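Practice problem. Given the sequence and the SMILES for magnesium ion, write out the predicted structure.
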Amino acid sequence: MHRKFKIAGVGEVLWDIYPDKKYLGGAVSNSIFHINRLSHEGILISKVGKDKYGEELIEELEKNGVATDFVQVDPVKPTGTVEVRLDEKAVPSFKCTSGTAYEYLDWDEKFSDLIASLDGLIFGTLVQINPHSRKTLYKLIEQLKNTLIVYDINLRGWPGESNELIEKSLQFTDILKLNFDEFDKLKEKLGIRKNEVTAILQVLLRRYDIKLISLSMGAQGGLFIDKNRIIYVPGIIVNPIDTTGAGDAFVSAIVVKYLEGASIEEIGEFSNYLGAFITIMRGATPDYNLQDIDHFKALHKKRRYHPEFSQYTIKE
Ligand SMILES: Nc1ncnc2c1ncn2[C@@H]1O[C@H](COP(=O)(O)OP(=O)(O)O)[C@@H](O)[C@H]1O
Ligand SMILES: [Mg+2]
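Answer key:
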């Protein structure tokens, strides 16, 4: 058994509004939810509004064992919401409200004690778009020592996803997670003039002194690269119901396994399984436990390969 790691997430918490139901959502909040499901201590640093949605969010987080001591309540700004629609492959598109509470994170004197005890910190891009939350995030990150810093880039094409902002985030980053769309955008933004995906990732790794990069590829699994290795983990064949939040769970699995000292193969396998498992349930934060993941693994052995990366495939 490993000790329990303490991992904070700084970013958005909101309601994912589906046509018939609402689910706990927000990329960073989702990742923290999964940290708890994976038997570690996830702490959410976020903000809700002083409204019904805000109260319900705090209730829902607590029900799921997520500490809410650092979920602030804004007296004026409303709680965040996102309208979610799924396409025929169960891939979501999002319509996000702006000017909501999580964009206005304040500095809290209690952060100082928390910072000293953190093993990991997860953040994304959305929380940085408003200078208010961005300032709080940077102040927090700048005080961290010996904390693994994880950047789940989650680019959505919002105005404000500037090169400067992204480059600053990459300079803090120990582990970077991005999907294929985000990879294309990043390559363009940073003007990396190489053709091969793996060569571009190697440039990123060296330029920003990153420890591990994971390029997730939805149904086709993921690529994992560190200073010494490139490995490809082929996708698990499933019948997805809702792929919302697969990436958020995938990130949590990477962080936990990395802190546990797992090999890059183990990190890849476990995160790929967790990501796939999340797609067979509705919403980004379904009810499950560690045994359910084992059960899922035993029933899902078939793989889907991305032809370009088969040379890096891990041996099963
Ligand atoms: N349709 C799917 N089938 C199997 N696994 C999936 C599927 N969608 C996502 N996953 C798993 O979840 C991971 C993250 O999903 P992805 O869609 O790439 O990220 P994001 O949600 O950040 O866009 C993938 O690398 C894969 O392991
Ligand atoms: Mg994502």
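Check your answer against the key. Residues 154, 179, 247 surround magnesium ion (ligand 2) (CB under 6 Å).
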